[in-house]
Amino acid sequence: MDISTALRTRRMTRAFLADPVAAELVDELVDLARKAPSAGNTQGTEFLVLDTVDLVAAYWAITLPEASRTAFPWPDLLHAPVLCLPLVDPAAYVSRYSEQDKARTGLGESEASWAVPYWFVDGGMVVQNLLLVTHEAGLGALFFGLFDNERAVLDHFGVPTNLRALGTVAIGYASPQQRASKSQHRQHKPLEQLLHRGAYAERHQRQPPIS
Ligand SMILES: Cc1cc2nc3c(=O)[nH]c(=O)nc-3n(C[C@H](O)[C@H](O)[C@H](O)COP(=O)(O)O)c2cc1C
């Protein structure tokens, strides 16, 4: 699958079959995904992979306790056999930018010096790579938020406190019965609403004058 086709056809999957995904394939997908650009080549994105029934169940026990499940709109999301949590390490960026070739940026001082936290930018690039290679491999995937559960999940799986989880990528074979989210129904915006060539022009300024 070429990149343009992958970009045009990838959609989030919210219902999975319980069929397992080979560990070697997951490793291959993660290995491809991490070949992303990163600020200062810090390569500060890591992955917590949960790929056994018990590990996946432990994750859901924290983030979606039994009592909340009947009202959960995507019950077949819980069948995804693999959950991959992209982890980013802000301290790795501060450390990298305190090296000699980056010291002039001042970004080696502290996390607070970063106007744009590049650890999240880099992590987003890795996640998109993961979604695309997963799609190319004929699998489905959903990136979704951890919200208030981030630290509880990370603590449970022994992730050090300096790491942040961007969210979770559920990976598996897509069920033929998909239910789209409300967000997913939204159409792509017209390009002219997003593309500002030369200067930022409000949409109403682009209308031809009324004669
Ligand atoms: C940063 C981010 C957070 C998201 N969080 C959720 C989420 O918590 N739950 C969910 O079902 N989908 C989540 N999504 C998926 C979006 O709803 C989805 O990408 C969007 O509706 C477009 O659909 P598509 O990816 O299928 O084209 C998230 C996507 C991104 C990029």
Q: Could you explain how this protein is built, in words?
A:
The chain contains 9 helices and 5 strands. It has 211 residues and is an alpha+beta fold. The chain has one domain: 3-Layer(aba) Sandwich (NADH Oxidase), CATH 3.40.109. Strands 1, 2, 3, 4 and 5 form a 5-stranded antiparallel beta sheet that branches. The chain is globular and about 50 Å long. Bound molecules: flavin mononucleotide (FMN).
Brief account:
With about 210 residues, this protein is α+β, with helices and mostly antiparallel strands. The protein has nine helices and five strands.
Per CATH, the class reads Alpha Beta
Radius of gyration: 20 Å
Taken in chain order, the helices and strands follow as HHEHHEHHEHEEHH
The structural domain count equals 1
Task: Give unreliable regions as ranges.
Answer: none
Largest sheet descriptor = 5 strands, antiparallel
- Say what oligomer this is: single chain
Share of residues in helices: 25-40%
CATH topology heading: NADH Oxidase
Would you report the number of β strands?
A: 5
Mean pLDDT: 95
Instruction: List each distinct ligand once.
Output: flavin mononucleotide
**Span between termini:** 49 Å
Question: What is the CATH architecture term?
Answer: 3-Layer(aba) Sandwich
So what's the overall shape?
globular
Which structural class should the secondary elements be placed in?
Answer: alpha+beta
